[in-house]
Write a structure and sequence with these properties.
Length: 166
């Protein structure tokens, strides 16, 4: 298997949501494929707490150990229809009283494909598992595009290099 050594632009990417708790409620917003349209500025961050042990009299750490890690990121979208806010608030986005506060969880899939010739590695798929939106902001500037911005936290992230079909 060849590894992907391609470079990508933001225009090479697309974002889709899937495996959402109760995803059928959101298909009228995203369609069956879960594609989220008009997104920009997607960011994903993985941070690992590294714990150091210093011996008395030594300036350099004697041991480094990996601690907890966290996965977070943000998405901006130039289209407002309430879908992303509903993905964050669940039933509370539509009514004041809802039976229990259950936040929808979902997987986010970013597909990067720069349409290379057959035989070359084709694309990379970055999947964020168990994501939950934790903040939503709406921005309506005077002379720029209207954007909604959401931040999220997730349980796991993976990347897969996919060879293009020959």
């Amino acid at each position: 298997m060849a590894f992907n050594t391609s470079t990508f632009f933001g225009t090479d990417g697309s974002l889709s949501l899937g495996d959402v708790d109760g995803f059928e409620k959101y298909t009228n917003y995203f369609g069956e494929s879960g594609a989220v349209g008009r997104v920009t500025n997607i960011s994903i961050s993985v941070v690992t707490e590294v714990k150091t042990f210093h011996e008395l009299g030594s300036r350099a750490p004697r041991e480094l150990r990996a601690g907890n890690f966290s996965i977070s990121g943000s998405v901006e979208r130039a289209y407002i229809n309430g879908a992303m806010l509903k993905m964050m608030l669940g039933d509370y986005a539509e009514k004041e009283e809802a039976a229990g506060f259950k936040i929808p969880t979902f997987n986010m899939k970013m597909i990067l494909d720069n349409l290379k010739p057959p035989g070359d590695p084709g694309n990379s798929v970055l999947t964020v598992y168990g994501a939950i939106f934790d903040s939503w902001a709406f921005r309506m500037p005077e002379d720029d595009f209207v954007l909604e911005r959401l931040t999220f936290q997730a349980k796991r992230v993976s990347i897969t290099d996919v060879e293009s079909p020959t």
